[in-house]
């Protein structure tokens, strides 16, 4: 009921204005009477049952009426309210029907009234049917529901609650929800108690062990208040999340395994997808992030072109285009990153349900060591070929270089016999000198071979002394002067004004200079040979220069190898094994010197040996 004037008129009289109350929809018969049983208000259902209206009196009912008797009895007592069942004969219900009557004594502004609610059995059966239907629906739906009163005592529970909590309905009824859930909510029980006390919502996923199996339930606490504010309580619902949790655990475990597998792949792995003509980073392994110094949490699902180097992105994009537009399923390319690492890259794809929905998988295999090994293998192969060639050349040259002088000695010995028989002692002396010269060249040949073998074996001992290299230069100059003069060459000497002090092995430096001067004289037919020294800053330079046949610049490196000459074979115009330049170069390096050759074909050669300047006070 609702009175639209009561809130506005302070002189409002309840008894006089009951007719102003507006009837609200309802299924109960309602009547308000005063102490004299005069009807001040009634709804239409009351009128239909008892044929009475406003301003009528309940005294008009049959004096023997059970209803009238009980109402009068209530008025005579001081009861606050009374509930009783009666049977009423009425054409409204086509006969005699039971009713439930609630009488409540009310006071409005000091006036006493009586509110009578009359409910039919039909209404009560409908309500009971609705409650039973709801209860049945909850049970059939296997929805665990607990309803508790304002103080937390349980007044209702579905059968599924019994199974979950392993408690009977009898054990649950009137048990306080705080006490009930204390044994099930172990890690957050205090927050549950605070929520009940404060009448606030609460939810939690709890783990319960039933029959040796862990189950996960999502528990929700919902405080509620009835629409008339006369009743409040709590509804606790539970949802079984066990399968969802197990599925999530399986998925997470699978993802962890996948991540572990991906991250344990030594190759770099990149997974990308195409969106609106852009390539998006879908995933990658740790090795990929580490190489390109990327932060995984920041760059996931970002455009690939904004993340990786442009040259790599262009190659990946080109590869994917080739796969999409052609018959290829795998595309390979090489890539060199900024850290000087070489990678063999493969691009492939997999369909996710449709050909349009695909992801592209890019693997980058580090082939740096493999490439270096292959290059070293190629170098070793070329070196082996060169060594075989050198071996063949050496055998050919050594056989020639040994056979030629020994043939000469054999010839000289026959001539020597003839001279002795003829007592031509002058000729004997000349032939003896020539034989000594031949034997000296043979001895020098074997000495060079032995020296080279010691150098190659690392058995050379360097005895360092600080000396003035001009002394050695002058000594070699004097020693080779006649040989150069004999060939008609101008042998020039140019020594530095100051002492050129260096720290070297005296014997080995002299051998180096002699070998280089020998070559200069040997390969120069006209012009000059120069031997000298220069002081440039902290460096001492020993220079051997000639105007001879020179060398092709591209042959210089090869001629530094042992047993190498510019012209090979028996038809070569010059004798020797090609060891002089090699030995001089290697000994210079062993004494921490620099060996530099500047040469041009048919114009001459300049060799510069550079050593650090030393003085007597230096250790």
Can you walk me through this structure?
The protein has 619 residues and is of the alpha+beta class. The radius of gyration is 59 Å and the shape is rod-shaped. It has five domains: 2-120, Beta-Lactamase (2-Layer Sandwich), CATH 3.30.450.20; 141-246, PAS domain (Beta-Lactamase); 265-364, 2-Layer Sandwich (Beta-Lactamase); 371-440, no CATH class; 461-612, Heat Shock Protein 90 (2-Layer Sandwich). Helix 13 packs across helix 17 and helix 14 packs parallel to helix 15 (506-522). Strand 21 (528-536) and strand 22 form a beta hairpin. It has 17 helices and 24 strands. The model is unreliable at 1-8 and 569-574 (pLDDT under 50). The chain is 40% helix and 28% strand. GO terms for molecular function: histidine phosphotransfer kinase activity; phosphorelay sensor kinase activity.
Q: Topology of this structure?
A:
Elements: E1 2-3, E2 21-22, E3 29-33, E4 39-42, H1 44-50, H2 66-76, E5 81-90, E6 95-108, E7 111-120, H3 121-140, E8 145-149, E9 154-157, H4 159-165, H5 169-172, H6 177-181, H7 189-198, E10 202-210, E11 213-225, E12 232-240, H8 242-263, E13 268-275, E14 278-284, H9 286-291, H10 296-299, H11 310-325, E15 331-336, E16 342-351, E17 358-366, H12 368-421, H13 425-457, E18 465-468, H14 469-486, E19 490-494, E20 501-504, H15 506-522, E21 528-536, E22 539-546, H16 556-559, H17 580-590, E23 594-600, E24 604-612
Keywords: Kinase, Phosphoprotein, Transferase
EC number: 2.7.13.3
GO cellular component, one term: plasma membrane
